[in-house]
Every structure is written in C-alpha cells, then in structure tokens.
Design a protein that fits this description.
Chain lengths: ~525, ~300
C-alpha cells in the first residue's frame, strides 16, 4: 500500500524514477546465472551426445536474452518463465504421452532395435577356454542411484591397464585418481561410485543381463562380482536378413523379429526386445481384448458412479449444513465453522490412510463401534462403500464453505418478495434459494466431478484399487481409470507404459467431453437467470 | 494438482460474500440447529479424535487403539523420531521444501502471467488465455508416464534433476503453475483500477516498478490465497511424488507414511504412524485455521477505496 500515495501525488510529468542500482545488478546477475546454467547444461548434453538437447537449450537461452536483455517485448518479460515451464513440463509431456501411446514402451521394450541387438549379442557371450580374466569393480556413474542407475564395469587387465565398460562399449580409464588394491581391483575412480558387495548383490538380476559389447564378435561379462571375462558371442546378427542366429546349438536356431522380440520358430524369444511403433494396437487392445475390455468397462462405470455419488453426497451434506447454519440468530457459527473445516484441512493422504486403518476388519474402529464384522476393504461392495464414506467425510466441508458463501450472496430482498407473495419457507427454499444456489455452485460441482474422476490418491491409499478377484491381479473392484493406468505403467507382472498412456488419453477425452457439456449446461443456466 | 477445484472454491465467496448480510426476521428458536450442529461436529471430528488418541496410545498398535485414550504417553513420538529406517524428519523437511518452494514459485509465476494478461495488451492475449483454460482440462498428473520417462532421461544429463530428487519434483509441479491459477489471479488483478497504473506511468515509473512495488502489494490477498491453495495441493500430492521419489531419504510425508501403513508391520507400527500423521497434518490445519478469512470470503478489502 505504501507506494500508492506517492504515485498519486501530483508530480512533474515524466520526472521519472531512476532504476535503483541493485535492481539492475539483480537483473544482470540473473541473466548471467542463466548463461552459466545453460553453459553447464550444454556441456553435460555434449558429453551425452544429445545434440537435439543442445539446440533446444541454445534456443531457450536466446529467448531469455532477447526478452530480458533488451527493452522490447515487455509482456514476454512476465510470461516467459511460466511459458518455458508450461511448454516443457505440461505440453511436452502431453505430446510425449500421445506419442508413447502408439508404441510398445514397457518392460523389455525400452531400447532401440540396434541397442537390443547389441545387448542380445553381448549376453550370449560364452567364455573361451584359456582367455584372460579381468579384475572387476561394479560401479555406477557418480551421482547416480546405486540401486537403479546404469551399471558400469571398472576393469583391470592382468597387465594393469584399466578400462571402463558400459552398455555403449569399452573405453580406457585414465589412470589419474584411480586407486587399486594389490590384486588390481579398482577401489576408487573419478566420476564413478563403486558398489559394495551388498549393493552389487542386490543388482544381480541387472548384472546377469549386463554385458559390455567390445566388438561385433565379442563381449565382456561378469563372473561373480569381482571378475569378468571376455568371450565370443554365440548369437550372430545378420543385417541383410534381419535375423539372429544361435550358433551354440546344432542345428542353428534362427530368431526373426516378431512383436518387437527376436523369436525362434518354436516361439522362444531372446530376453531383450526393443521399442517400436505399434500403431493403434494399444487402443485396439483396450477396445477388443476380452478381459481388458470387460474390465475397462467395469472400471469406467464405477469411475463415473464414484465421481457422481461423491459430488452429490458431499454437496447434499454440505448444502444442508450451510442451510442449517445460515441463520443470523444462530450463535457460535464461527466455532462450528472452524471445526467443520477440519476434515478438509487435514492432508488427503492422512485422511485416506487413517480411514483405511479405521476400516480394518479385525481391529478397526468402524467395526468396533458398530459391532459389525464387515470385511470393509476385502469385499468388493463394502470397499466401494468405504471409499464413498471416506470421500464424503473428506469433501463435505468444501461444499459447506462454497454453499455458505453462495447463500450469503443471495440478496435478502428476493426472499422477502417471495414471503410477501405468500411463499412458505420450503417454497422459498425450493423456488428461490435452490436455483440461485445451483447457478452459483454449478461450475464448482463440475470441477469437483472432474477432480474426483481422477482422484488417484484417495483410491490408491485406501484400497490400492483392490480387492482383487482371485486369479486376476490386473483389475481391482475399486480401480479408477487412473489407478488402473498407474498399475499398468509401474507395477504388475510386466509394466507397459505404452498401454498406460493409451488409457490416459481415454481419460482425457472422457473428462474433456464431460467438462465441455457440463460447462455448456451451466452457461445456459446463467443465461436463463 | 487439486488447485483447479480449490481455487474455484474461493472465487465465489470472495466476490459475493459481503453483498448482503442484512438480518432477516426468521421466527422460531435455534436449539434444533444446535442439536444438528453437534451431530455434524461428531461426524466431522471422530476420526480426528481417533487419530489423536492413537498417537497418544502407549501400546501403539492398531489392536489396542480406541476412540477415547485410556492412557497417554508420548512414546509414539519418541519412536517416530528415532527410527533410522523411517527418517521422519527427512520426510518432513522434504515435504516442507517441496510445498514452500513449489507454491512460492507457483504464486510468482502466476502473478507475473496474470499481470501481463490483465494489464498489458499484446497480440495473442485472448487466445493465450483461452488456451490456458483448455489446457487445464488435461490434468498434469495424466501425463505421469511421460513425466517419469522425461525425468529419468533428464537425470542422465543433469543428475541433480533426475528421479529421486525433490528439485526435479518441484520443477514438474511448476509446469502447471501458470495455467492453474492465472484465471483466478487475473480476475482479481482486473478489479484494481487501471488509473493507478496510468498515474504511475505518467510519473515515469517503469513497468517493473509498477508491478513489484505497487500491483503486487495491492493484490496481496489473492496471492496469499493462491499460495495457500498451492501449498495444500503440493503438500498432499501423492502420485508424482510416489513415482519420482523412491529413495527412502528423499521421500515426502505422504509417500513415507504410506510405506508405513502397508505391509506386515502396519498394525504394530500404527501408533508411530498415527503420531506421524498427526504432525503431518499440523502445517495445513494451522494454515487453514489461520487464514480462514482469506478462504471464506473476507477478501473484499484489498481493492483500492
């Protein structure tokens, strides 16, 4: 506020405020920081060989300079930060989601075909009798998570020379800063974090699948966690025919590409597949695969019912309470309101987790208080009821607040006019209060519906989408589309991000359609009003 | 992420709340309203009472929990803070950093954008606003597979912004910052008389001076509201947090408490969990109770008289 009176006083036209020195310094400091950051990012990108990334970074930097280092483009000065974030973290993911929906991206299908060929070849390496062994230290690039980052082999040849092997190939490791034990095992190397025995053992599955491709005909594999050998692969790739031939058995088995795996005539596949375009297959699967389609329909119906019942129940309870407390003579309204707001103020994850405990069959509060013995979270219908009850508790204060605000905004003269015309309290409520209230909160009800339609955390934290019918762990009784997509992408037997993306696109169209028709309807309502 | 609905909640009360509070002459007594009110309070409060008593329950398991505590002890809090495999203080710190930095950034970006849309005239202003509204129909969390893949790749290039980093998560949240609140903010910016800007401009103030020293102060109430809503939204966000933060030390309260409440040990850990959940609720509850006025429509001051 303080600045306003100053500016209102009559001052000479254009007397001007000189920009304080620290503001200019801050501005140029921030531009310099952006430059430095971009330089760092570009250096990292070049090291990773991502030239597209370099171009994008340079473009963003040019935009920043053009907008902030000049006096032009004033609106952009205010929009650019949000715009960069919006494009890179909201629009790009949407595009990427759509693109992924047309691929088979998922477990076993994360690499390009060439990478998949290399890995399959490298994994077929068999030790050649009498070939030399390396001392091995298993490492990850510095800063990477020891449990998940890409593996690297730090190798010492019997002659003492050191190498680093990744899935890209073998490179010499400069001796600077490398420390070795007496036996030659590397204990420290700049740029790498060496895994200890326990951490290495935890990654034994990755180790089994990992091999360093040395050439088209040789690869390095580990034996245990401190030795490695170089050997010749038994699989050979024939680029002309696009087939892999296993030479370790006679007669040789020929694997040809099928469903993004190299597949033998008897149906056996090589372990690593590749990512490829599958066209509309994911969408077709959702619509035509018997089990998925039936489940998808079931999930969809429950999803709509869940969102609709949640909105209705919370709105009804909230509205009744708002009407209850909408009496000017009532004392202690603030007290009631402060306490009634509490369920809404408690973070959603706490609510869901606490109610999950209260619905525990053996020891839960709900069964104890009601002397029932309902298996709330284990029975399909009871779990649905449990979710709706929890969401009612969670959501009614919001509706209560909204309705209270809307009720207070209804002019009292309208009600008085109705009274003079002879309307009783219920008639006034039905013909005056309710229509006005609905016009005010209508859009909020639609927004609430759209929010609940994707209410991931409530379902996931309360039931994880379960209970599951025996034998079918992919589709639970309380799954929403989004929890289903989440399970498809990140858990279950074989994560399939491509299919999950297709589900997300379905959700998008459903939500967009509903919001659109909903908003049109409220627009009509308002016109009538 | 839930800002869309939350934000709308405030829009209604703020504008209209104060228009009429004229007393009406309604007959009858109010005792039945109190009776129903008390019933509503029991419904609203019993889970909270249960949570408090479970947190204070010395036995600390779900089997021994009850609505009214028989004995009280702070033992659960002791275990909570001294459990090395469940670093509650780290979770708390992570949650607070993510919510504070994320919502401050969100408010600032939103305010800048709202200033441009409300005060400046430029080509693409209206289409831009409409495009932002349309984008809100595609909830950011629906793109979680793509966000996961993007940040997994980003982590290879800039390790500080890979998965398992709270800064990467903040960045992911900030993607929606401009779209989520710009309409709410712009609506409020529009209520501030343009004459003020013009007077300042005549005096020779630059657009930056007008924005930082004048407009931002005048719209403070809506900034507080938007800050509060984003804070609560980010504090409770679970989906992205759970796929980004897998390392136990980098997790948020939501993800951490969830990991305590599943598995074989959930009944034994219940007291510890309840204590943690109770403390986790505090920031948001205090924020709501403290800023109730902002939430329920005391926001008619603010504009210049």
């Amino acid at each position: 506020m303080a600045a306003v009176p100053q500016t209102l006083e009559p001052v000479k036209l254009g007397s001007g405020y000189n920009t304080p020195w620290w503001a200019s310094a801050l501005k140029w400091g921030l531009i310099a920081a952006a430059l430095a950051l971009a330089a760092y990012v570009v250096q990292r990108l070049v090291a990773n060989g991502s030239w597209l990334g370099v171009v994008i970074t340079a473009f963003i930097l040019l935009c920043i300079l053009a907008v902030y280092a000049t006096r032009r483009a004033i609106p952009m000065k205010y929009l650019l930060p949000g715009l960069i974030l919006l494009v890179s973290l909201q629009i790009w993911p949407i595009v990427y989601t759509v693109a992924t929906a047309f691929t088979n991206y998922g477990q076993g299908h994360t690499l390009s075909k060439q990478e998949a060929i290399d890995i399959n070849v490298a994994n077929s390496v068999k030790e050649v009798e009498g070939s030399e062994r390396f001392k091995l230290s298993i490492a990850v690039p510095e800063g990477g998570d020891v449990a998940t980052a890409d593996l690297a082999f730090l190798l010492t040849k019997p002659d003492g020379s050191t190498y680093v092997g990744t899935k890209k190939g073998l490179e010499p490791l400069p001796a600077d800063g490398v420390e070795k034990t007496d036996t030659g095992k590397i204990t420290k190397a700049p740029g790498y974090t060496i895994l200890n025995a326990r951490e290495a053992n935890k990654r034994s599955a990755d180790l089994k699948a990992f091999a360093v491709p040395v050439s088209d005909t040789a690869g390095i594999k580990s034996v245990g966690i401190s030795a490695a050998f170089q050997g010749a692969p038994t699989l050979k790739y024939d680029a002309a025919a696009d087939t892999m031939t296993d030479t370790s058995v006679t007669p040789n088995v020929v694997y040809s590409p099928k469903n993004a795996y190299f597949t033998a005539p008897d149906g056996k596949t090589l372990a690593t597949g590749w990512k490829e375009n599958v066209g509309t297959k994911n969408f077709k699967t959702l619509l035509t695969n018997e089990t998925i389609r039936a489940g998808f329909l079931k999930i969809f119906l429950w999803n709509v019912a869940f969102a609709a019942i949640s909105v209705l129940s919370t709105f009804l309870l909230g509205m009744l309470l708002a009407l209850l407390f909408n009496d000017p003579k009532l004392k202690g309204k603030g007290f009631y309101r402060s306490l009634l707001i509490l369920p809404y103020a408690i973070p959603g994850f706490v609510t869901a987790l606490v109610w999950a405990s209260m619905f525990n069959q053996e020891f839960g509060l709900v069964n104890t208080l009601t002397h029932l013995n309902v298996d709330w979270l284990g029975n399909a219908w009871a779990a649905k009821a449990a979710i709706l009850i929890t969401n009612l508790w969670l959501g009614f204060p919001y509706m209560f607040l909204v309705c209270t605000g809307a009720l207070q905004s209804i002019p009292s003269d309208v009600k008085e006019a109705a009274k003079i015309d002879g309307a009783g309290p219920f008639r006034t409520l039905r013909s005056i209060t309710m229509p006005l209230l609905l016009v005010a909160v209508g859009p909020l009800l639609i927004a609430s519906f759209a929010f609940n339609f994707n209410n991931f955390s409530l379902i996931y934290l309360l039931t994880q989408g379960g209970p599951f019918q025996s034998g079918d762990t992919s589709i639970g009784s309380t799954d929403l589309l989004i929890t289903y997509a989440f399970r498809l992408a990140f858990s279950g037997a074989s994560p399939n991000i491509g299919l999950a993306s297709a589900v997300c696109i379905f959700i998008f169209f459903i939500v967009a359609l509903m919001s659109y028709s909903g908003f049109r309807r409220t627009a009509q309502l308002e016109e009538v009003n | 992420m839930s800002n869309v609905t939350d934000a709308a909640a405030v829009a209604i009360p703020e504008g209209r709340a104060a228009t009429s509070k004229a007393p009406r002459d309604v007959g009858g007594s109010t005792w039945w309203r109190h009776l129903l009110g008390v019933l509503a309070l029991i419904w609203a409060l019993f889970p909270i009472v249960f949570l408090v008593s479970a947190a204070l329950n010395p036995a600390g398991s779900l089997q021994t929990s009850s609505l009214i505590p028989k004995e009280m002890s702070m033992g659960n809090f002791d275990t909570l803070f001294n459990d090395a495999s469940r670093p509650y203080t780290s979770w708390y710190k992570n949650s607070m950093i993510i919510s504070l930095v994320g919502s401050l950034g969100s408010v600032f970006i939103g305010a800048c954008a709202a200033y441009a849309f409300s005060r400046l005239r430029f080509a693409g202003r209206r289409p831009g606003l409409l495009a932002l509204l349309l984008l809100q129909m595609f909830p950011a969390m629906l793109t979680f597979p793509a966000l996961y893949l993007t940040f997994a790749k980003l982590g290879d290039i800039i390790p500080a912004l890979g998965l398992n980093s709270i800064w990467a998560l903040i960045l992911a949240y900030l993607g929606g910052a401009m779209g989520a609140n710009v309409w709410l903010l712009k609506g409020y910016f529009d209520t501030i008389p343009k004459e003020l800007d013009e007077a300042a401009k005549v005096d020779g103030a630059s657009h930056a001076r007008i924005f930082f020293t004048m407009t931002l102060r005048l719209v403070m109430p809506i900034l507080v509201t938007v800050f509060m809503l984003s804070f609560v939204g980010l504090f409770s966000e679970f989906l992205l947090a759970s796929i980004f933060l897998q390392d136990v030390d980098s997790q948020t309260l939501g993800v951490g408490l969830y990991s305590m409440s599943i598995g074989n040990e959930k009944n034994r850990l219940f007291g510890q969990f309840a204590a943690g959940a109770l403390l986790a609720s505090l920031p948001v509850v205090l924020l709501y109770l403290g800023f109730q006025k902002f939430l329920i429509g005391g926001m008619t001051q603010g504009s210049v008289k």
